[in-house]
Amino acid sequence: MYLKHPDSIYIGGEWQPTDQREAVINPADESLLIEAPVGSVAQVDAAISAARKAFDEGDWPRLPARDRQAMLTRFLDAIEARKPQLLDLIVAEAGSTRLLADFLQYGIPMKHARRTVELASRDPITPLPLELTPNAQGTTTLGTGVVSREPVGVVAAISPYNFPFFLNIGKVIPALAVGCTVVLKPSPYTPMEALILGEIADEVGLPKGIFSVVTGHVEAGRLLTSDKRVDLVHFTGSDKVGAMIQAQAAPNLTRVVMELGGKSALIVRADANIQQAAMAGIMGFTSHCGQGCALMTRHIVHNSIRPQFVEAMKAVLAHLKIGNPADPSVTYGPLIREVARKRTEDYVQIARDEGATLVHGGKRPEGLDKGFFFEPTLFDNVRNGSRLAQEEVFGPIGAVIGFDDDDEAIAYANHSDFGLSGSIYSADAGQAYRMALRIRTGGVLINGGAGTMQSDAPFGGIKRSGYGREYGEEGLNEFTYQKAISFHAA
Asked: Which of 93, 180, 289, 293 is catalytic?
């Protein structure tokens, strides 16, 4: 239905069958989508070897940027030609609503990818200024030089289940654009959105070896993060798995870029537009059923307007249409698996035990016997030091926390092990900007920001939200290193 090679993985430009299979199910109705191929350690080893050979001996890293751009543009054009199929796959495999699949799961990453290919046309050589330097002969050396920005090498790209197409594209395109070779390993929950990229690479004739798609269990994944032939591990996922990957990469001092979890704060000042802020608050924990690292799940609201804010959210939550996202009218779909639903249920009980007030939701919806559904759940009177406010649920729970002045709001926002994103709503944009400068996160939106993720804006976090940046020129640079070449006048 979705794949031309449903029993194989893509290694070095060839489709290789695997001995093992693993069920991939639709999280909305628990139906079987595919018995997906599961790669072996030996097959992952072969993919790394192919990437290493393609980088060290092949033409890809040494091609003019315009030639790589032309090939990647054909690749992206071929993806666009399959958009209807890909949207169906995103809905079925990741459980995304159709609206979210169209504009965010698919539309935004394709916009970023086009811009990334465009940015890759930059001159890789930067001249340095002339400089006079004393030398051992007692005279002065007149010298200058250049800085050459070059591809880092073989990239192990490891992506999660929540936004698989988005994150696969966000790793593969910039890596290939600067001349790296890539081995992509998706989540076992969502392998098809990666394997289909192998089909498209095959279709457009990307050079053999520069791009492989592998699957596999723990040992196969560990090889990608610990093998000295890999120059960069680019990972998106939980902070706990990120810490494990960092440890596995440490013996070889392998470079790592990690975009991890979040517990981002939405600050709503007393002068904010309550309806706008409440809608942002709802999106902050219901988008993709709360399965987003940068979602605003902590709502830090001025106490003078907190009751109105909570009531505004409660009114809208009651009208969300919960169901199978194959129905275009559904606005709220399932969690990815039962383990995610159970974790969400556990946090509902934790919040109750901590004294928070349940405003809406808190249970499995009635009438949906199949699928991993859980009601959008809102708690008020949450303490910022509580587990609900400090731990990443990765499920549809919002936590409302009251504050009395701006310094207190900033302190609450910064009191977190995470630092990925943040948001401020206020009629005083200048004060919101001053507050944004004091919030320790990788990004802050003021009154909704400039749209969903600008293509030239770097994205990433600090603290347990990871390090390194994605997108824009800073994101492109993560896949390169700098070499200084100096020379002096004769």
From this structure: 293
